[in-house]
Amino acid sequence: MDRGNNDPTWIKKSSKNIYQNKWYSFKHDDVIMPNGKPGTYDYIDRADFVLIIPQIDNDLYFVDHYRYPAAVFSLEFPEGDINEGEAPKNAALRELKEETGLIPSKMEYPGYLRLAPGISTQGFSIYYAKDCQKGESALEGQEQDILLRSFPINSISKMVVAGEISDSPTEAALYLFRTLYPQLFSGI
Length: 188
Prior knowledge:
- By secondary structure, the protein is α+β, with helices and mostly antiparallel strands.
- The protein has helices spanning 88-100, 153-161, 168-180; strands spanning 11-20, 24-32, 38-46, 49-56, 59-67, 72-76, 79-81, 106-114, 123-130, 147-152.
- The protein has two domains: 11-46, no CATH class; 49-182, Nucleoside Triphosphate Pyrophosphohydrolase (Alpha-Beta Complex), CATH 3.90.79.10.
- It contains three helices and ten strands, in the order βββββββαβββαα.
- Strands 4, 5, 6, 7, 8, 9 and 10 form a seven-stranded mixed β-sheet that branches. Strands 1-2-3 form a three-stranded antiparallel β-sheet, with no helix packed on it.
- It is globular and about 55 Å long.
């Protein structure tokens, strides 16, 4: 199959919101599938978010908080929504300060990833917050249980394998981060 053009193999005939709140909508589309037959596709339409990889010396910083839908405490890189009209980098700086109190001396942009493109429109921009300084956080109501935790860079791969870090966006960002900054992981 030639992918030399951008013509979609699925054709949207109609779309309607099944449910909507301030964070996302659940959509139901009538489509023509790649085989030419009519069908339907249900998915979540949600705005992108930012994920931040904070570093101080040889440690990376994570937030540890309760994730209600999965009923688990989860070790994750700080992340959050991008406000309407806000640049992703500004959202990353704001979210990092709110959730952790950390202030980077420099921000780099490793890239953009899709969360789950088979069920959602959402993706996320990743920022590497280098040489952070500690400050005061400003946690929102649902974030009051967040703990800031740090781990040596050379221990993080073992934590993923052991299941101590199981958040998919965090793991995907770690993979990209390790690929782009292998010098930080030398000696592992």
